[in-house]
Amino acid sequence: MTKADHVDVLIIGAGLSGIGAAAHLAKDLPAMSYVVLERRAVSGGTWDLFRYPGVRSDSDMHTLGYRFRPWRGNVALADGQSILDYVRETAREYGVDEHVRYGHDVVSAAWDSTTARWTVTSEVDGAGGRERRTTTADFLWVCSGYYDYAEGYTPELAGRDRFRGEIVHPQHWPEDLDHTGKRVVVIGSGATAVTLVPALAAGGASHVTMLQRSPTYVVSVPGNDSIKGRLTRMVGEERAYSVTRWKNIALQSALYRLSRARPELVRKVVRKANVAQLPPGYAVDTHFNPTYDPWDQRMCLVPDGDLFAAIKDGSASVVTDQVTGFTETGVELASGQHLDADVVVTATGLNLQVFGGTELVVDGQRVLPHETMAYRAMMLSGVPNFAFTIGYTNASWTLKADLVAEYVVRLLKRMRSTGNRRVVPVRDESVAEVPLMDFDAGYVQRLVHTLPRQGTVAPWALRQNYLYDAVKIRTAKLDDGVLDWS
């Protein structure tokens, strides 16, 4: 059975990016019809999917919040439920929730130049089982993020079947898991691990061990932004939000640039701060001094040093070693050490998934993302009337999501005012290509070869610099000789 209808814009994904994209359409192009197709039964994306203890933002909320809707309050690193509430409140405020169709697993999107339309095919649960439905649209906008919601990444670990305790991945945290009084080993050292360890320790575990193959940069930041609090009392919530947002953008940008220009200086500063928060004589260089430079991978932020506090009071510890496999009672390490455990959490990362697994087809030819070049890191060469949203790796995701939304709105307004029905970036074959994401994180390196490429010069180059993009993207001419309008 097939059910078809048509909209001006079709958005895939009802998470942080998709809700933001739809809100931009609602406020800036209210006459334009749109629909949001969401695979899951509820909105919120990441912030509804992840339910592990302590789940929170790894970016400050005054930049992770939307530019057009203030994050109220002074909390800098917010808990997952608060972020989910914020996303859903935004959807209600702008009427987006009325345009979301849940349970739509988008499997393919085909562009036809003769009609200048996309035909998007979804699988849904029907009375007779799984059935396919199609929706046509003039413009397709993918806001599904870049990782696989169905399965997180877990490396092959020998002896899993021997272990008598529980093994869980944070992406699929069991609601009925009780870790009270239990010995917990968290394998990993990224943002998820440094969040889980103090939360589990504070939540009643007898002891929590963070087992890492190699150290990560961990930086303590205030849990509340005191400057935002003072500004709010002086000038009100909205103005305080705007000022705090720009203040934090400037600080993030300065730290990133300094990290790239003077990595040894930043390393020393971070190390000194770690030493001050850990017990005297602690092996900082073993457990918190990475071999790579700052911002070769994303830094981990911990509110008010909660991870260091848990280590200091003895409720948590860090072990840096290689896992050789499971035993019946825990984890065996390359050094010969054995970690006793009742629960093992594999906070070992994510699996990348390009465009939510949607197969793109243009005039009967399948689009292979790695054979395309990304235009302004939001459109694809040779793919008409198409945009995608992927945030920054060195700053808050929403900073880029808002810029993409503003630019897409400009494109759509131009199409409506001129009568053009198609816009497509045309690749300059003389432009050299490089990986889209120049980032050493494991989840990126495992599948970077499947992603679109970027170029070495504008507008094909990705700068990972919000201050640069905020100017260039907002002022970019739509008649730039790269976009083909017809």
TrEMBL record:
Belongs to the FAD-binding monooxygenase family. The keyword Transcription regulation does not apply. This is NAD(P)/FAD-dependent oxidoreductase. The lineage of its organism: Bacteria, Bacillati, Actinomycetota, Actinomycetes, Propionibacteriales. GO terms for molecular function: flavin adenine dinucleotide binding; N,N-dimethylaniline monooxygenase activity; NADP binding. PANTHER family: MONOOXYGENASE, PUTATIVE (AFU_ORTHOLOGUE AFUA_8G02570)-RELATED. The keyword Oxidoreductase applies. Pfam families: FMO-like, NAD_binding_8. Gene3D superfamilies: FAD/NAD(P)-binding domain.
